C-alpha cells in the first residue's frame, strides 16, 4: 500500500515546483548590491519594486523562503530572433559573452556537441557559413553546473517537511522524525527501493523522478548536476542534462557503458573504505570525491574533518580531488587544512539556513569570505528543494542575499556566477570540458535575457522566464517558443508556460522507452 504520506507535489500542477522561483511578492526591504539589489527576508520573494537608498534594486534577492524578482535596475533586451536557418548541427549565437577572463559583445559558434569559436566575430569560421544564426539579445554564458543535489527528493519542497527545531548538526534530523520518515518512505516507494520495514516497492519511477529533477534545473539554465539518481547508472540518466556523477554522463560516453569511466564519487557522510578511494585517486579512476562534512553549527559537525582525515591511511582523503559539501561549522583551522591540501567546497546557503538557522538566521551558513581568503575554490549548489532552492538561479539570489546581509557585499556577481560555471566544473574534475565558453569545450550553453552593462548581475537576478535558450551537448533542449525550429525534430518537444512566458522543453529522446525517457 501507499505510505501514509501524500507529497504536496501530487496535489499541485507539474509546473508549481518547476517555476517556484518566478519572483513576485512584496517589494524588497532596502537596497543591497547596487547591481543586483537587496531583497526582503519575508516569506514572499522580492518584487521588481523600488530602488534602495544605496542604489540597490529592492527585489533581486529573494526572501528567506521565497524567490526574488528581477531587480529594478536590470534591463531585459528584446526577444531573441532567428536570423537564418542552416544546418541542424550548427548554430551561431550573437549576444554578450561571459568568458573566464572577460565579458564582451560577440558570438559563439556551436558545431555538433562542441564550441568551435567564442570570440568577437565567429562569422569567418568555415562552418559558420552554413550555420543557423540567432540574435539572442541576451547574455551568453556556460551552462550552469549543480555540484550537489539530492535529485530524487526534488518532487518535494518545504511544505512536505520542515524542521521542528533549529538543529545543531545533520544527526539531529532524519528518519527519526515521523514526518521526514514518511516523506522518505514515499520517495523510496516511488524510486523502486526497499521501503518501510524492508518491503520491496512494486513500482519503479526512478527515471521519472530524475527527469523531473533535471527539468527543474534545465528551465533555470542548468546543464549538469551531481548527486544524481538512485539506483546508479541507469540508462535513462544519459538523456537531458548531464547526470555528472553517473558513468553515462555523456562526457565520454561512446555507446558502451562499460567503456565510460565514472570519475566523480559522492559520499553521503563518510566513506566506508577511505583507502579504496585513495587507491582510485592514485589510479586516476576517481578524479573528484564529494563528501558531506561539517554540516551543522556545533563542535560535533566541526570535528568531522578530523574524522575524514582518519578514514584513510596517512590522511589520504585530504587531497585535491576531495570537495567538502557544506563545511558549515568550519572555522579558521579547518579552512587552513582545506587550503593546505588543495581541497574545494560546495556551498548550499539556503539549505543551511533552513536547517540550522530556523529559516531566518542568515549567518547559519558556511563562512565563504574566510574560505576564499585562503584560496579555497568554492562552488554553489541548491542541495535539494526541501528548504533548499528550486534551482541554481534561486540559489544565486539567496547567496547574494546572505552576502549583502552578513558579509558587506564582498561577493561580486561575477564571483557568484563563476561558482556555478567555471568553479563548479573544476570541482567535478571536468574543468577542461565544461564550465567555460571556449573552443573545444562541450557546447553546454545558456542564454539569459539581461542588461549587457550588468551581465553578471543579470544572471544573478534572472528567473526561469528570463532563460531564453539552454543547449546541452549542442542540442537546444529548452527555450523561448519562437526558437523551437532550432530544437531536435525527433521525437519533438513540448510546450509549457514558465512564469507567463511561452517556452518549449525537449525531454524525450530518440528511441526512448520506459527505461530511457
Kindly describe this structure.
The chain is an alpha/beta fold and 517 residues long. The protein has 3 domains: 1-76, no CATH class; 81-143 and 435-505, Roll (Urease, subunit C, domain 1); 222-427, Alpha-Beta Barrel (TIM Barrel). The protein has 13 helices and 20 strands. The strands form 4 sheets. Strands 1, 2, 3, 4, 5, 16, 17, 18, 19 and 20 form a 10-stranded mixed β-sheet that branches. Strands 11-12-13-14-15 form a 5-stranded parallel β-sheet. Strand 19 (494-498) and strand 20 (501-505) form a beta hairpin. Helix 11 packs across helix 13. The two termini are 26 Å apart.
SSE layout and pairing:
Elements: H1 15-18, E1 81-84, E2 87-98, E3 103-111, E4 114-119, E5 131-142, E6 144-146, H2 178-190, E7 194-195, E8 199-200, H3 206-218, E9 222-225, E10 242-243, E11 264-267, H4 274-283, E12 288-293, H5 299-302, H6 304-310, E13 322-326, H7 332-340, E14 344-347, H8 349-356, H9 368-373, E15 377-380, H10 392-406, H11 413-419, H12 422-427, E16 445-448, H13 455-461, E17 467-472, E18 475-480, E19 494-498, E20 501-505
Parallel strand pairs: 2-5, 6-9, 9-10, 11-12, 12-13, 13-14, 14-15
Antiparallel strand pairs: 1-5, 2-3, 3-4, 5-16, 7-8, 16-17, 17-18, 18-20, 19-20
Helix pairs in contact: 11-13
Amino acid at each position: 500500500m501507499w505510505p501514509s504520506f501524500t507529497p504536496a507535489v501530487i496535489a499541485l500542477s507539474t509546473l508549481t515546483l518547476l517555476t517556484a522561483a518566478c519572483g513576485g511578492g512584496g517589494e524588497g526591504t532596502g537596497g543591497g548590491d547596487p547591481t543586483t539589489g537587496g531583497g526582503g527576508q519575508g516569506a514572499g520573494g522580492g518584487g521588481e519594486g523600488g530602488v534602495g537608498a544605496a542604489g540597490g534594486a529592492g527585489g533581486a534577492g529573494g526572501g528567506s523562503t521565497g524567490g526574488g524578482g528581477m531587480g529594478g535596475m536590470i534591463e531585459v533586451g528584446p526577444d531573441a530572433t532567428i536570423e537564418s536557418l542552416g544546418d541542424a548541427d550548427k548554430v551561431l549565437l550573437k549576444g554578450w559573452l561571459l568568458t573566464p577572463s572577460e565579458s564582451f559583445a560577440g558570438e559563439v559558434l556551436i558545431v555538433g556537441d562542441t564550441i568551435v569559436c567564442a570570440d568577437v566575430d565567429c562569422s569567418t569560421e568555415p562552418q559558420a557559413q552554413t550555420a543557423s544564426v540567432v540574435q539572442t539579445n541576451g547574455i551568453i554564458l556556460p551552462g550552469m553546473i549543480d555540484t550537489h543535489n539530492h535529485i530524487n527528493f526534488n518532487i518535494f519542497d518545504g511544505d512536505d517537511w520542515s524542521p521542528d527545531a533549529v538543529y545543531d548538526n545533520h544527526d539531529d534530523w532524519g528518519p527519526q522524525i515521523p514526518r521526514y520518515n514518511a516523506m522518505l518512505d514515499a520517495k523510496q516507494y516511488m524510486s523502486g527501493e526497499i521501503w518501510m520495514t524492508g518491503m520491496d516497492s512494486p513500482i519503479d519511477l526512478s527515471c521519472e523522478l530524475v527527469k523531473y529533477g533535471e527539468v527543474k534545473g534545465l528551465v533555470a539554465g542548468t546543464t549538469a548536476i551531481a548527486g544524481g539518481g538512485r539506483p546508479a547508472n541507469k540508462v535513462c540518466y544519459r538523456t537531458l542534462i548531464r547526470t555528472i556523477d553517473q558513468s553515462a554522463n555523456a562526457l565520454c560516453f561512446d555507446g558502451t557503458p562499460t567503456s565510460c569511466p565514472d570519475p566523480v564519487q559522492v559520499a553521503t557522510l563518510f566513506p566506508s573504505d577511505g583507502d579504496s578511494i585513495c587507491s582510485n585517486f592514485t589510479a586516476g579512476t576517481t578524479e573528484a570525491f564529494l563528501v558531506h562534512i561539517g554540516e551543522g553549527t556545533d563542535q560535533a559537525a566541526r570535528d568531522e574533518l578530523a574524522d575524514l582525515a582518519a578514514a584513510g591511511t596517512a590522511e589520504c582523503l585530504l587531497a585535491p580531488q576531495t570537495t567538502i559539501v557544506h563545511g558549515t561549522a568550519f572555522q579558521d583551522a579547518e579552512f587552513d587544512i582545506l587550503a593546505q591540501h588543495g581541497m574545494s567546497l560546495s556551498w548550499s546557503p539556503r539549505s543551511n539556513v533552513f536547517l540550522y538557522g530556523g529559516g531566518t538566521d542568515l549567518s547559519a551558513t558556511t563562512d565563504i569570505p574566510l574560505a576564499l581568503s585562503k584560496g579555497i575554490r568554492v562552488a554553489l549548489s541548491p542541495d535539494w528543494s526541501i528548504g533548499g532552492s528550486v534551482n541554481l538561479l534561486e540559489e544565486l539570489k539567496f547567496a547574494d542575499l546572505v552576502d549583502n546581509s552578513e558579509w558587506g557585499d564582498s561577493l561580486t556577481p561575477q564571483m557568484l556566477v563563476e561558482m556555478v560555471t567555471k568553479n563548479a566544473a573544476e570541482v567535478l574534475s571536468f574543468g577542461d570540458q565544461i564550465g567555460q565558453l571556449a573552443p573545444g569545450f562541450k557546447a553546454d550553453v545558456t542564454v539569459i535575457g539581461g542588461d549587457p552593462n550588468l551581465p553578471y548581475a543579470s544572471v544573478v537576478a534572472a528567473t526561469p522566464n528570463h532563460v531564453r535558450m539552454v543547449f546541452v551537448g549542442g542540442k537546444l533542449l529548452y527555450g523561448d517558443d519562437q526558437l523551437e525550429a532550432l530544437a531536435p525534430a525527433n521525437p519533438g518537444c513540448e510546450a509549457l508556460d514558465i512564469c507567463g512566458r511561452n517556452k518549449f522543453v525537449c525531454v524525450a529522446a530518440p528511441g526512448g522507452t520506459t527505461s530511457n525517457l
